[in-house]
Amino acid sequence: MKKLKKLYLQAKRRFRKRIIGTAERPRLSVFRSHKHIYAQLIDDKNGQTLAAFSTLSSNEKPIKGTTRKAAFTVGHYLAHKAKSKNISLAVFDRGNKVYHGRVKSLADGCRDQGLAF
Fold this sequence. Notes:
This protein is α+β, with helices and mostly antiparallel strands. The chain has 3 helices and 4 strands, in the order αβββαβα.
């Protein structure tokens, strides 16, 4: 198990060294667990998170529905938060996950609100 974790972290580091977020074009980092999906806009130069949203961060209750619909909704709300902070461009960081399913759905939700990457 330690070897798999080490290989995962190596691949993640290899992928992440090419992607750098700035204040003008932050990194849109996506993390998906088995049940939930999390996304945040990160300024790597200053080391701060500009906006974040997940299936658990809804004000009233967690976002329900199929996992792909929930991912689309998370992307939609995150892009809405980004627009309120005058962010229209981002660098997409899928975190060495394959670009399909929930990750793609989150990206489509962001694009639907006008966030470009």
